[in-house]
Amino acid sequence: MADLKVNIAGVEFQNPVIGASGTVGFGREYGEFYPLSVFGGISCKGITLQPRQGNPAPRIAETPSGMLNAVGLQNPGVDHFIQNDLSWLKEQNTVVIANIAGNTYEDYCQMAEKLSVTDVDMIELNISCPNVKSGGVQFGTSCESVGAITKAVRQFCKKPLIIKLSPNVTDIVSIAKSAEYEGADAISMINTLTGMRIDIHNRRPIIRNNTGGLSGSAVFPVAVRMVCQVAQAVKIPVIGMGGITTWQDAVEMMIAGASALQIGTVLFKDPYAPVKINEGISQFLDENNISSVTELTGTVKLW
Amino acid sequence: MKYEIVNATLLKKEEIATGIFDFLLECPSVSKKALAGQFVHIAVPSKTLRRPISICDADEKTIRIVFQVKGEGTKILSESKVGDKIDILAPLGHGFSVDKSQKIAFIGGGIGVPPMLYSARQCDNAVAILGFRNKKMVILEKDFQEVCKEVYVATDDGSYGIHGFTSDILKKIIDEIDGVCACGPMPMLKVIAGICKEHDKPCQVSLEERMGCGIGACLVCACKTYDKDGNVEHSHVCKKGPVYNAEEVVW
Fold this sequence. Notes:
The complex is a heterodimer. Chain A is an alpha/beta fold. In chain A, 30% of the residues lie in helices and 18% in strands. Chain A has helices at residues 78-90, 105-116, 143-156, 172-181, 220-233, 247-256, 266-269, 273-287, and strands at 6-8, 11-13, 17-19, 41-43, 60-63, 66-69, 95-100, 122-126, 161-164, 186-189, 193-195, 212-215, 238-241, 260-263. In chain A, helix 3 (143-156) packs parallel to helix 4 (172-181). In chain A, 57% of the residues are buried. The mean pLDDT of chain A is 96. In chain B, strands 4-3-7-1-2-6-5 form a 7-stranded antiparallel β-sheet. A 7-stranded mixed β-sheet of chain B has the order 11-10-9-8-12-13-16, sandwiched between helices. In chain B, strands 14-15 form a two-stranded antiparallel ribbon. Chain B folds into 3 domains: 5-92, Translation factors (Elongation Factor Tu (Ef-tu), domain 3), CATH 2.40.30; 96-205, Rossmann fold (3-Layer(aba) Sandwich); 207-251, Ribbon (Dihydroorotate dehydrogenase B (pyrk subunit), domain 3), CATH 2.10.240.10. Chain B has helices at residues 28-31, 72-78, 114-121, 141-147, 166-173, 186-198; strands at 5-17, 20-26, 39-42, 51-54, 57-58, 62-68, 85-92, 103-109, 125-132, 150-155, 162-163, 179-183, 203-206, 222-226, 232-236, 243-245. In chain B, helix 5 packs parallel to helix 6 (186-198). By secondary structure, chain B is of the alpha/beta class. The A-B interface holds A 22-25, 29-30, 32-34, 45, 53-63, 65-67, 69, 71, 74, 206, 216-217, 265, 267-272 and B 1-5, 43, 47-50, 73, 89, 209-224, 232-234, 239.
């Protein structure tokens, strides 16, 4: 049996498949299908300093091989997360990643400080949510702003710090380098691509927010390309995500340069996807006489 | 584990009105647990998202669903053949709570009619009020006649039954009933909730919203409701609903 363990910034994951933020809530619902330890880690729903109610519905629209969403960071707030969800999550034998989003530097820093004295294993900085006016992506689209927010949060963050990048940028490689330079321990990418669908009968966007974030198989090739480019440019590990649906996608993403993976949209159709993906990876490794999944990372042979 | 996915066998299939399909699915583990007003979340080949469809009826071994073809996903589903396996995540959501001995009006509008059948079955003294656009769209009338003491059918254009809306009928019988369970378009539910409030009758409504995971994790199917302290919140139709007490809903 091949070894599926991966290590990101000193944190050991039992397998490389992490539930992506915004798709698994705080873990409880998927914990009604199977032990949450089938995931190497859980990246919790993006939390903010104060509770948020999010955007009005409709918040979702299906697209060819994917979907748009604009939830708008509905969440019960960081204190509620710490008091009500964290201790339960910590008993589930999976790595717990807190995903944080804010309006200001102070919001991010305060949350990082609060979470640093909890049992959270890692903090993921959400500077890439496309669905709120303030709350992330304004920090995520230039090298200067990504560098500055990373540097600011780094001072308060005593946990391994992951920066989650937006693909809605001109040069994601430079942005990743800025995050690395200012002290990020890992990069996770990609968040959703901004998109829109319109109902041709009433000429209204299907999503009440007008635009939403595109995810699912449709974005997978974009994610593979970006992960590959970034992984070749930075020394810190890259957690790859964006449309991973099958174990073959997972293997491909790791070959592109990912050290671990996040899955999200696939869960809506197949909650058992993490089980199937891990089984598939394991079998692939055995068949190819590869002893550890870590040996796949970044082995793409570019032309 | 609370949730499971089963491959249900399609036993019977019929197009009961233009674009409206009636499926009988064999899935004993689901049908035994299914409660009135709950829904099944159906995976459709080649589509990213499941389709939430209300449970129309259930017995020991089968559930029945009646759905309208509205887009590509329901079109593909409608093309399933008898004997096909259908991937369902079910039963989901909170259903209607029905006091067997009370006289309850079960009100359905259009494609909101099907879930009222299994709901009415839970009541010994059920009254059905069914509303449709026109005669061609009338479905399940006979089924309701078997289950209910009284059945009223109304059409918007008067081409069948009573010319008018379900709310017109409700107004006439409201003093004779103990409560209402309803499913249908939001404007219909709003009027019904208003009538019930005016006459101080309990009213439960089943809401609909575009859905993702179906289990309360992705938070997309938001609707405005009051929490227990009376504050307005976005609750999620798939988990807190689809059935709400009418006074919980921000109309």
